[in-house]
Amino acid sequence: MLKKKLVILNTTLLLGLGSFSIPAINANAETSASISSQRTDIQDKISDAEYKIIEAQEKLADLNAQINRVDKAVEENKKQIKQTEEDIKTTKEEIASLKKEIKDLQDRIEQRNEILKERARTFQENGGSVDYIDVLLGAASFKEFVDRVGAVATIMEADKDLIESNEADKKDLETKQTSVEDKLSSLTDMQLDLKEMQKQNLDKQAENEKAKTDLVAKQQENEAAKAKLEKEDSSLAAKEEEIKKQIKEKKEENLNNLISTTTQATSNSESASASSNDSSKKSSSSSSVKKSTSAVKSSSSSQQKATGGKSAAITAGYKYIGNSTYKFGGGRTASDVANGLFDCSGFVSWAYSQAGYSIPASTDGLKNYGKQVSFSDIQPGDLVFFDTYKKDGHVGIYVGGGKFIGSQSSTGVAVVSMTSGYWKGVFNGRVVRL
After folding, report:
1. Does the model's pTM come out above 0.85?
2. Which residue in 220, 249, 300, 325 has its CB near the most CB atoms, within 10 A?
3. What's the rounded Cα separation, in Å, for the pair 2 and 271?
4. Edge to edge, what strands does the sheet with 383-386 contain?
């Protein structure tokens, strides 16, 4: 009977102490749940920040690759410009030398003309034009006749030599003038084209540097935001841990108070009751599960093998779209191809080599290589020509739909329309089929 009363008393104490402690424990539990929810939101934001950082790093890597290509093109163009300037200087020196040579030729021509004029004047003073037949027939003897024949032949041959020498010198003079002037004109055009391309490359260089600065600033901003969020999460984690500790200490305090009020006589009953109380009190608390997101960008590029079909030539350069830079004289070495450095004719020649063709790598060579067809009969794979800095100064591969693929100085390899805008205005109608 006493044992039963003690059990009832213990149960009453247990319920009383439990009722007394529940509000405090529940309040702490609610606070812990709220903190856990906040941490979940913060960890989501941290994951977003990590994704943005990875995305910025990938863009930065692509941009650095493009910057390297543009920098290389700038350096190559500098070399080309320097070489062209040296060639122009040499050609101008040739022109200066030629001017002296022209002066000498003109002097020789003038001297011969004076001789002919003097001879004509002498003839005129002696009665006008000379009839060589009369001179021969006027000989008084055979010996005089022979002498006169020799004299007439000498005079006629001398006149003939003077005239032929004059004509040869004039022709030589015209040939040299034309050759040097054409060379200087071609070099001057090339210099203008190179300087324009260099200007575009330098503009692209400045644009890339600005984009890189913006990306780096954005990346630093994302990293600072992530660091701030991680600090907030760390602070909340410490608070959450402190509250859990308080809940645990409160439960242990309640259990100790309960044990101290019981007697040794009811220890078995108390033990069972305390064990039951302990198991019922040990409810699961809210916990946060950290979410993580990883962004891994994988890209694969496969180079199309030569099949002999023109479609292979059309599609060969697609991998360089947005991934290349115009370089005067580019596309003719393995290093240029690996780094996406092409000029227009170099790109066309390389693209067709991927389809099994071996064709020239200059616009002059390409325009005369295949068969010219009318624009109304144009087909994908045909070569189209444009008058840029000179006639037929640019070439591309027609892809259909009024568009062509080529290496342009402003964009590198790209597919552009030839039925509107700049390229429509400079298309000269030349279509070549290989």
Report:
1. no
2. 325
3. 17
4. 371-373, 427-433, 383-386, 394-400, 403-408, 412-417
